[in-house]
Amino acid sequence: MTNTPTSASAKTWHALVLGRAGLDLYPQTDGGKTRDANGFTADMGGSGGNIAAAMGKVGAKVALLTALSEDSIGHFVRQKLKECNVSDALLQTCQGNSRTSLAIAEVRPTDCDVVIYRNDAADLQLCLTDAMKAAVADSSNLVVTGTALISEPSRTTTLELMQYAQNNSTCVWLDLDYRPWNWPDLETTREIYSHAAQYADVIIGNEEEFAVLTDELEAYIKSASSLLVHQTILLKRGGNGASLFSQGKRLDSGVYPVIPLKPYGAGDAFLGNLVDHYHQHKDWQSAISRGSAAAAIVVSQRGCAGAMPNTKEINILQESSVMKPSAIWR
Description:
Strand content: 15-25%
Largest sheet: 10 strands, mixed
Number of helices: 10
Number of strands: 16
Strand order of the largest sheet: 6-4-1-10-11-12-13-14-15-16
């Protein structure tokens, strides 16, 4: 790799996040099914928007790279980004029939249906601009979600920005974020993911997502995280924590015990806080602990972007609880 996550810089942006943001609707009441709902509450969702919100809530200087429809839903997302301290300086507005995504997500820990509407999705209309390239060169980190690679023009825009970031000492984080219904077949997905992975300094995903990238996960991790290649692999294990592989070493970690209200949003909270903390302290062990605490808070609350904790809330959890098991290098 030409760049590593330990590169120091004095760039304007702490991070740019590239990916979708949309409107989430949650049926009332907690624990209920959508078919029985007598009302809904609303929040911003979408992996890109959530990760950016997680970073903005803890004080990072962060902007979202996405496209939104020119309608009330797009305006809703813009307003929520502002409330989460995420810059809209690089947002694009779609004309025509493209629409910002909508998700309806049940607030229950099991048997939780999430329905996402992404026909002619606005975020996939993202086009490359000189302003985006300049911002990437002036950012310490570029966080890319895999949904941005689904189709054109977003796919080419994303790949070119990843390459541009690599060439300008900007650390590239690739969250595989695999949603099978978005892709035509495994072969196509693997080809695109493999192309994107060559520009990434850190690759994040669960076992299902990494299985899309490779049939030989152990061999892939050993090669990628070697001293020669120096690519960091972060394998998420849900309620069992995570494993990080870097420079030939392995860091295993657990979770902060909470009673979950819902299963989604945790990964975005985890990654946003991981990137922010690692950017500041260059310590994987404490960064993973920080991300895990944020994830625990989000799964115990209704909503996604609005549930992302601030610094004080994360501090309180870490002072009052212990991650089990703790993060240990092996």
